[in-house]
Amino acid sequence: MTIMQAFTIFMSILATATSYPYVEANTNPPGLEVTTDSGVLTGIIDPSAPHVRHFLGIPYALPPTEARRWLPPTKKFSGESILATSIGPACPQQLLRDAEVYSVDGGNMTEFFPLETLSEDCLTLNVWTPEPPRSGLPVIIFFFGGHFIQGGTNSRFFDPQSWLERTQEHIVITVNFRSNIFGFPMAPGLDEQNLGLLDQRLAPEWEQSPLTSSTSRILQIQS
């Protein structure tokens, strides 16, 4: 067995430790309903990680579709109820086709880098925070790589659940943003060319918003 084969088998075992969407999640404990600028979120606790609260697929901007397709992101303000229990789709991109280290099979058939679900309505973020809440924890905001061509928060490699369950020492936020032509169109007729970077800029502004800060006793995100 080669080193690469052994590594691939190891990663396949590691990746199967977490699955999307979460099933039989506990939504009963207090602190799983949080009011934010985006709406009233209902999070979950995965039974396999009872000390981690998940708030997943939170829209931090209006959908960048139709008239907003080639514009900077617009922050979402809403009082609607949001079931924040599953990570949102990746932004439009060409699916992986060639063999990659992420999968024994390679390409977009892998369960390790699941980018099959794509949508232009993709400007979402995900929050993992300890249960029970603790104050004063550092916040890690993670933007995936991919050469501004591909990527998404729905990769299991970007799931910090087991890490946070073990350490209880931080809060993690992962962010979807537009890439390729949707994020960096390079079209002479547009005023803004770096839409993906503006998406990235808006996400921390959501995290630092006054309304979110007012509920930091629940999310424990410190401004």
UniProtKB/TrEMBL annotation:
It comes from the Eukaryota. GO terms for molecular function: carboxylic ester hydrolase activity. Residues 1-25 form the signal peptide. Keywords: Hydrolase, Signal. Residues 33-206 form the Carboxylesterase type B domain. InterPro entries: AB_hydrolase_fold, AChE-related_enzymes, CarbesteraseB, Carboxylesterase_B_CS. Belongs to the type-B carboxylesterase/lipase family. This is Carboxylesterase type B domain-containing protein. It comes from Extremus antarcticus. The lineage of its organism: Eukaryota, Fungi, Dikarya, Ascomycota, Pezizomycotina.
